[in-house]
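Structure first, sequence second, as always.
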């Protein structure tokens, strides 16, 4: 069996109109032959990702989730344009094929892109794959190097410069994510006002501007199937923008679960960072700072903010489940995670 990432059955409630997608795609890409079949990739608590298969070609479709969406989230057109703009300066982005703004086709905007074949590391390694301690450490090195490479892209020389906004990015991020949390609160989760007050009080100024991914982790990386140490693709640019590199790193660390972390955190693990040889969160920070040359007074704010931002994402998803806007049972326990994370964040602050 192959260790390459594969698609499977479509989750209940997330089906697409196959005939409508096929008709639209064949109009956009006349070289397609045969009847379309659609399957779904296992990731996707936010935007949903499908494999489209014709007789002569495979490609990937991305669409927003079903149900309630934050006003500024899930902008398919923006993600499509970001990935197009990256093509010439960051060679790890799939080629964009077509964008559809006609929501009558599948009920939302969507785009279609090249399929990058390879290995995607999710919660656990593929059953057919092993990773030695040395290899795990090297993979972490390569992952951090790719992030540093992204942060050094000359974005001002590309169409991506239109993403830049005036003002302090860190201030804007704190206020924006606080607002998102307050709008997504359900009766069974805490208000997080103590954590919010700490973030607003300890917020540093942005350290510099660069292109940031904002969701950089193993399950958004494509590894070469023949040499898993080689990263051939970076996926999911939904939240990419011009921002602060240390916030980007902090957001990545929020998903980095150690083998000895508390049990509720283990339930949140979406990548095999618990394996022997994987760098610790502190080692990742130290390596990044060494490669980038950045010297913050402290990294605590970025760590806590990244975790709070993750809480907001979890709560926004739980909001949809709580209000019966999605039937996906994966989200049933998200409210309990939000409750747990309040105490965990306070512990990180008090260290």
């Amino acid at each position: 069996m192959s260790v390459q990432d594969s698609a499977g059955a479509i989750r209940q409630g997330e089906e697409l109109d196959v005939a409508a997608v096929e008709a639209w795609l064949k109009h956009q890409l006349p070289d397609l032959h045969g009847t379309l079949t659609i399957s779904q990739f296992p990731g996707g608590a936010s935007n949903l990702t499908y494999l489209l298969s014709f007789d002569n070609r495979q490609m990937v479709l991305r669409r927003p989730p079903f149900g309630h969406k934050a006003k500024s989230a899930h902008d398919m057109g923006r993600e499509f344009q970001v990935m197009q703009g990256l093509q010439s300066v960051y060679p790890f982005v799939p080629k964009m094929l077509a964008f559809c703004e006609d929501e009558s086709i599948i009920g939302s905007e969507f785009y279609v892109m090249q399929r990058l074949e390879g290995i995607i590391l999710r919660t656990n390694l593929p059953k057919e794959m092993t990773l030695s301690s040395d290899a795990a450490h090297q993979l972490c090195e390569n992952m951090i190097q790719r992030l540093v490479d992204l942060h050094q892209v000359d974005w001002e020389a590309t169409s991506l410069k239109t993403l830049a906004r005036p003002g302090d990015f860190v201030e804007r991020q704190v206020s924006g994510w606080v607002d998102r949390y307050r709008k997504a609160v359900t009766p069974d989760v805490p208000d997080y006002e103590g954590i919010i007050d700490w973030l607003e009080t300890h917020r540093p100024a942005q350290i510099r501007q660069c292109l940031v991914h904002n969701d950089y982790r193993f399950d958004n990386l494509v590894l070469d199937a023949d040499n898993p140490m080689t990263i051939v693709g970076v996926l999911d640019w939904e939240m990419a923008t011009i921002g602060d590199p240390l916030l980007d790193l902090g957001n990545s660390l929020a998903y980095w679960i150690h083998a000895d972390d508390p049990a509720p955190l283990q339930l949140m693990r979406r990548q095999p960072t618990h394996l022997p040889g994987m760098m610790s969160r502190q080692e990742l920070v130290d390596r990044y700072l060494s490669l980038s040359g950045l010297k913050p007074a402290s990294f605590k704010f970025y760590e806590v903010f990244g975790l709070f931002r993750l809480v907001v994402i979890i709560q926004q998803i739980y909001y949809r489940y709580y209000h019966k806007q999605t039937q996906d049972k994966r989200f049933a326990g998200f409210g309990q995670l939000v409750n747990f994370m309040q105490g965990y964040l306070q512990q990180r602050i008090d260290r």
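Margin note: The chain has two domains: 18-114, 133-350.
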